[in-house]
Fold:
Amino acid sequence: MTQRLILASNNAGKLKEFAQLLSPIGFDLHAQGEFDVPEAEEPFGTFVENALAKARHASRLTGLPALADDSGVCVNALGGAPGVHSARFGGEPKSDERNNRKLLAELSTKADKSAYYYCVLVYVRHPDDPQPIIADGRWDGEIVVTPRGANGFGYDPHFLIPALGKTTAELEPQEKNALSHRGQALRALVEKLK
Ligand code: IMP
Structure:
């Protein structure tokens, strides 16, 4: 028997990536947009609180279990910024180009360019689930000034994985999923759900 599960996102890439690992263990994943769920507010200062808010919101409006993710890039010399503010670091409306420009400007005087991507996933069985299932992942790298690569999104052209000598925008999607913060979190969540 399959269990319907709502993904608290309308990102088609995420839906596909998540469904690949969740279908084999019995979940039938649907984007929240299919149920006319509007985007939830993400007002909190931690990734886990924002993911929990998104999962609860989707579950409350659909009456089904829900899964939400929250992620961002954390730069050590900037005290972890942009962190939870990654999507809108450069202001409204959100723009990858403005985000990257602001990141490079703030980092230009810093010697330490180390950074990491972070992702947390939260699964709730119902909106008031007292024991949400939580998994996270982290992917270390460093910020480079010159963009490279055309894959991925967001900060990927400026996020170098030194061991590979490539930015995350130079990785094929499957290669990225095998290593990324989101891939790590998803595989950890699948183990817990099993
Ligand atoms: P969200 O959790 O999908 O809303 O992602 C938050 C923001 O973090 C995105 O808009 C990107 O700016 C950034 N981000 C998260 N994951 C990645 C990634 O894998 N590559 C590039 N940027 C990312």
Q: What stands out?
A: The domain at 3-193 is CATH 3.90.950.10 (Maf protein). The first helix runs from residue 12 to 22. Residues 69-73, 86-87, 99, 117, 152-156, 168, 180 surround inosinic acid (CB under 6 Å).
